[in-house]
Amino acid sequence: MAQKPSIPKGTRxxxxxxxxxxxxxxxxxxxxxxxxxxxxxxxxxxENLSTLMGKYGEEGDKLLFKILNSGDYLKDAPDDLxxxxxxxxxxxxxxxKGLRYDLTVPFARYVVxxxxxxxxxxxxxxxxxxxRADRPQKGRYREFxxxxxxxxxxxxxxxxxxxxxxxxxxxxxxxxxxxxKLNNRKILSGIAEVIGAADKIVDITVAIDKLxxxxxxxxxxxxxEKGLSDQAIATLQPLLSLDGTNESRLSSLAEMLSxxxxxxxxxxxxxxxxxxxxxxxxxxxxxxxxxxARGLNYYTGTIFxxxxxxxxxxxxxxxxxxxxxxxxxxxPGLSGVGISFGADRIYDVLNALDLYPADTIATAQVxxxxxxxxxxxxxxxxxxxxxKSGISAELYPDSAKMKxxxxxxxxxxxxxxxxxxxxxxxxxxxxxxDMNSGEQKTLTLEQMIEQFSK
Length: 454
Hints:
Blueprint: H1 16-35, E1 39-40, E2 46-48, H2 49-52, H3 57-62, E3 66-68, H4 79-83, H5 87-94, E4 95-99, H6 104-113, E5 122-131, E6 143-152, H7 158-174, E7 178-184, H8 185-194, H9 201-208, H10 211-225, H11 230-236, H12 246-256, H13 261-280, E8 285-288, E9 302-308, E10 317-322, E11 336-342, H14 343-353, E12 366-368, H15 373-388, E13 393-395, H16 402-411, E14 416-419, H17 422-427, E15 430-434, E16 440-443, H18 445-453
Parallel strand pairs: 1-5, 7-8, 12-13, 12-14
Antiparallel strand pairs: 2-4, 3-4, 5-6, 6-11, 7-9, 9-10, 10-11, 14-15, 15-16
């Protein structure tokens, strides 16, 4: 017996209903992106490893999917590496390309490669899949979509304000209650200075970024393993558990960081963003969180994260300011800020809370039944007229029993069924049945078009 086919762990198939729901998510996010003046681009799924490696930190590099060179990929592999099973160094000899880990680094490559064609500041959005060799679990997949928006070529903190307002608009349209969390990497650098561990900033941010997942005790253990002293870890504790209003948290932190110029600059930037957001008003809760780290190394200023309040799941948005990301591709000094919506996690939240609009999964607005050649020929003419008027319609292809045809319409969530039998053909009418109420009425084609147009 043939083995049942399967797909790799961490990947998924999507049914027509699931795709309708996903397209609702993508279209909603795209509509808001365009409302805020962003333009769409796309980049290849496959990038050179030289583009990807070293941009996400040591942990990120381990999660990159590498692609074996085509042909005899072992041809140029050194015998000593093969004999030693040295996979780390062997990889560079047998693999030159990889699947993109996120959309931000490919975007940085795109900006540098096309810099003479772009008008700065450049507001771009991108909706494409990314891949990470992570351990699959609820809300975490190896293949997933990101919906990114970035503004490059401007240092203005008004860009951060715009992004917060855009985040609020998207989740308001989804009717998802969220908390938009903000921090600043300069504040984190200031904290590292104050506790006497400025050289450990990467280790500190990677560790405290896991605070919600593994808890404070495990974070402290990881910091200890990375070489932080017990005194430094003890000094860090109150900074990770600030409470009160945003202003009171920043004021408390300002006292602790008064000796750090970098840290005070971060507090100044954070106050600017929060003051402007407060003045504009948001429906979502916007809060400063000193423990928010976003473990990626390229963030240099404001960092963003969004959490759903009514579902237990990881962050459904992340992002931040990167002052010199393009510098790694030979274009130093270009500042940018961006966010990434986790479409797959948003999908899980909408499913858990059943927040999809009623018409999301509808395919055709009306299905015509099939009673034979004469009736189906008349129905096809009606269907073409409806489609020209922008009304989606389909014909059941076979002259089957009415129960089977109605069952098909029900299973497809088609709200109306049009019945064209011998009498309707002779009279030039259509019997239209509302599948929800069961009500049925006889209409002309013009009356039917008018009803759907309303």
